[in-house]
Amino acid sequence: MSTDALDLPDVMSDTMMKDPYRGAERLRESSPVVRGMLMGAVPVWYVTRYEEAMTVLGDSRFVSNLASVQGSQGEDARVRMAERLGVPAEDYPYLANGMLGQDAPDHTRLRKLVMRVFTVRRITDLRPRLEQIAASLVDGFADEGRADLIARYAYPLPLTVICELMGVPESDHGLWHGWSTGLASLQPGVMPRALHDMVSGVRDLVERRRDSPAQDVLTTLITTHDEDGDRLSVDELITFVITLMTAGHEPSAHALGNSIAELLTHPDQLERLRREPELWKTAVDELVRRCGPTQVSVPRYAAVDVELGGVRISAGDVVQPMLTSANYDPRRYTEPDRLDVGRRMKAPGHGHLGFGHGPHYCLGAYLAKQQLGAALPALFDRFPRMTLAVDPMELPWQRLPGLRRLAELPVVLDPADGSEALPTS
Q1: Which regions of 48-188 does DSSP assign to beta strands (E)?
Q2: Which residues make beta-bridge pairs with 403?
Q3: Looking at residue 68, what is its pLDDT?
Q4: DSSP line for 244-279
Q5: What is the pTM of this model?
Q6: pLDDT for residue 263
Q7: Cα(58)–Cα(356) distance, rounded to whole angstroms?
Q8: Angle, nearest 10°, between helix axes 365-382 and 234-264?
Q9: What is the rounded radius of gyration, in angstroms, for the C-alpha atoms of the chain?
Q10: What count of Cα atoms within 13 Å lies in the side-chain half-sphere of residue 382?
Q11: Is the distance from CB of 280 to CB of 377 less than 8 angstroms?
């Protein structure tokens, strides 16, 4: 690697993780497409502005699998990342063969299977259960005066929801929390072990559910494999469960935690929601735009030579849209740095890229919005005087590659009762 390469921007660098919003702003205002490095090893084109990011996410000239690029001699970013993390060869397919790494027709086939079990009606019918889970969690710490809302609320709520949907027994909820956290860490040693344990856990869970079928998503997927094996292989079944479980609670947990912190640091907007509770619907999308936990999309590849934002990108080059940067693009949003719970954003999608765009648009977007729409009002209605227990600048943000999430969210639930603030550690 040349000395010049070491100076190229990397969204996984300490500098970008420390201040991703300002770092993204500097790149965005320099160019819509910026040459950078992925994990300090793979050359990449970072796409910084909304219009160009939409193109990469929705245009068939950009694909998710390097094998879709005819005659490509380029480097497979996922293989390189897996190698650097120490993922053993036998476990790599469970990363590479998920829906995020597939293109049509395989991606289309897999996505249709998910859409059969994660229907809008099924998720809509979950709303009473979501509200019940939220109320039960709140009851669990309501009398304590203070709480870490990441551990007590933001994590257990979506984890409980996805586990119930999938059919994971309550005794295994803690295992999935640990596995998913390890997988998201992208730390050598930690991430490979979490993936390996997760694969083993899913194999065991599938066998248990075969012996005891139930009215859950896992049983439906097993039936799809057993009765129509050419449509869902064993490895696809395992990968499917891993993808749905991790995507179903990790991003939602941190979207919820980030949103709570955002509202607590913008009391004027929180007061507006109290006066106009009908704005919670628009507030959810505005919060995902402003403080969604996913900073960048998974890597894409140029299928052909493309000119984007005045930059020539060669077939096989790695391209990575910066979602945070695009969601703050002043060319798209008026006063993007301002939280506005009444902001009405235009289509496509929900008016932002917090859930992605195009063929890989997040399948769990509707579920995530339902969870935020139930959990946020439940919490703030119950504790109208709730405040942060630390200075906002002391909130412990985790420095994880491509992610923006809190390690803890210490709050005083009712300052009027004389409760002391939580320590910062």
Answers
A1: 62-63, 146-148
A2: 294, 400
A3: 92
A4: HHHHHHHHHHHHHHHHHHHHHT-HHHHHHHHH-GGG
A5: 0.91
A6: 98
A7: 9
A8: 30
A9: 21
A10: 20
A11: yes
